[in-house]
User: Fold this.
Amino acid sequence: MRGPRGRATLYIEIMEFLRRRIREGHLRPGDRIPSERELAEQFGASRMTVRHALDQLAWEGVIRREQGRGSFVAEPKIPLGLQFLTSFSEDMRRRGLEPSSRLLSVAVVEADDAVAAQLALAVDRRVTSLRRVRYANGEPLSIEHVQVPYRLLPDLAEHVRERFRGQRATAFSLYERFDRVGIVLQRARQTIEAAVATAEQARWLQVREGSALLLLTRVSFDTTGRPVELVRSWYRGDRYRYETELIRPPTAAEVLPAAAGGEPEQP
Assistant:
């Protein structure tokens, strides 16, 4: 019988073996990976050790496990950086994917107090509310709810209905509409939090109800500091990961001598 260290070593070996097979292209997205029994025989491991390795890979998003069917290589997650203010369409095209959308609803409505505060609406609280499913190469990736002050784009709802006559559109971009009327986006305030799919969201995103989602809430501002959109997007947790670069701030020892105009004291 293997000791605890042996089991830990096998657990890592199994994970690295599968990662390498995927990395080198021997196993591609959608391919079925060897069963627990096959891996146990190949590595001389217990089924519990193999199951532990597969559970870890599933948690990392490398594979997906389907009850009664086995384990399969997952589609690679789409990395989205947090440094730049870009649209969904811009992000997808930059990665060689074809974006498209399905219109769920569009209407001019009265903003509630929370939305009015976010968009700094005082007198005219009308907003154009746009809900759509966002796709990349035909795969549903997110549900997006955008609210734009009506006064900024009074014809937005009409334009959206025209573009989405067949419910699907590949060429519509809200940011291009902003550009056409001289609204230049400069910055945004954004939050990201965990969420779970409702029954309706699960149906549109083709996932199970209760599946993990990433909820992104963003308020975008133009060059005058005016808020021009409030966006809430629910992204599939199995297809997205967020990336950002962190920079360590200077220490007090580095800042104080510079502020005083001198050199750091030598020991």
Remarks:
- Residues 14 and 42 are 10 Å apart (CA to CA).
- Residues 78-243 form a domain with the Chorismate lyase fold (CATH 3.40.1410.10).
- The chain has two domains: 4-73, 78-243.
